[in-house]
Write a structure and sequence with these properties.
This protein is α/β, with parallel strands linked by helices and 336 residues long. The protein is built from ten helices and 14 strands.
Length: 336
């Protein structure tokens, strides 16, 4: 395999310190680096007839089908992983795996992305309505929340594996102290919490849901989830996190759209023709450039459906038909 023409260390520095004006140039260098150093990605590009001479802009870069993370080790370069994140799954379901070369890199990227949207995570107390970190050490979501907790070291930080009255009681104590709190939880667990218990609400509480129902109960749109919680909690501050095992970056919903982290850019493709891109405001399957994935593959064709908007934001409208059920809600279900 041809040796990459770009320096790995230089790429990492440019990726972490990226700005919007530099994005395309950095993305093109990452594409050249990964085509040269990632055998699975190079093989895929070759099979579809795409070579460096054909790629003149980010719009030309091929996106690797996300399903390949289930059956192949996706790596750019020769290195041993510090850890491997795995997607959730039920018995008999093949789980995606994402090898992580440098766990600190993942934490730095996640902190940078959250800080861009809501301020540094160290300034918040974190309450996780999720399986505990020790129960699922291969969960990227739980690892991220644990990193956020560690950045501030608040004694009130706590994981809850189930919707127990203890959650509401813990939040009540935090409200009395006027703490800044992020309550992060899988969607149906949050719905159960607000349905079954009197959850305190205050100005410094941010509730973050992390995905859909994924097999537990009737599938709801995100707006329906928000309306259900708001019907019980009034003027509560809600957001959603968009992330997955195969990506190291996250996006956060503010208002009605998702704002990607600085290393992310989202496109949409025709659901019937994966090589045809669509314009803003058109509904299609989501492609993600995540430059933080410099060690694996930064160009991912997901199974999610959505649309993009001119200012770089996007919305997630659901999943492609017949896609595998996946996500952190299944982790919660296995502990209930």
């Amino acid at each position: 395999m041809k040796k990459p023409d770009v320096s790995y260390d230089s790429l990492r520095h440019r990726i972490y310190n990226i700005n919007a004006n530099d994005f395309e140039g950095v993305a093109m260098d990452v594409w050249n680096y990964q085509f040269a150093s990632n055998p699975i990605y190079q093989q895929y590009c070759t099979l579809i007839g795409m070579h460096p001479d054909h790629v003149k802009s980010v719009r030309d870069i091929p996106f690797l089908p996300i399903a390949l993370f289930k059956d192949h080790e996706i790596k750019s370069g020769d290195w041993s992983p510090e850890c491997v994140f795995r997607s959730s799954g039920t018995t008999g379901m093949t789980r995606s795996s994402h090898a992580v070369r440098d766990l600190d890199w993942y934490h730095r990227i996640a902190i940078q992305g959250f800080e861009r949207a809501f301020g540094h995570p160290r300034d918040w107390v974190w309450v996780g309505l999720l399986p505990s970190y020790l129960d699922r050490p291969d969960s990227s979501l739980v690892d991220m929340v644990h990193a956020f907790m560690s950045s501030g070291g608040h004694v009130e930080n706590r994981f809850f594996p189930q919707t127990l009255p203890d959650v509401a009681e813990h939040l009540q104590r935090l409200k009395e102290r006027r703490q800044k709190v992020v309550l992060v939880g899988v969607t149906f667990a949050l719905l159960d919490l607000f349905s079954d218990y009197e959850v305190p609400v205050w100005d410094n509480l941010l509730v973050m849901e992390t995905g859909g129902m994924k097999g537990r109960g009737v599938e709801l749109t995100r707006d329906e989830v928000y309306q259900s919680i708001q019907s019980r909690a009034g003027d509560i501050r809600l957001t959603s996190e968009y992330g997955m095992t195969e990506l190291l970056s996250q996006a956060y919903r503010i208002g009605n759209v998702f704002y990607p982290g600085p290393q992310m850019k989202v496109f949409v493709r025709d659901v019937t023709d994966p090589f045809t891109g669509l314009s803003d405001h058109q509904r299609g399957a989501i492609n993600v450039i995540d430059l933080a994935n410099v060690d694996t593959c930064s160009f991912i064709a997901t199974d999610d459906v959505g649309m993009t908007f001119p200012e770089g934001t996007f919305d997630v409208l659901g999943r492609m038909d017949n896609s595998d059920l996946r996500g952190c809600n299944l982790m919660y279900a296995s502990t209930s």
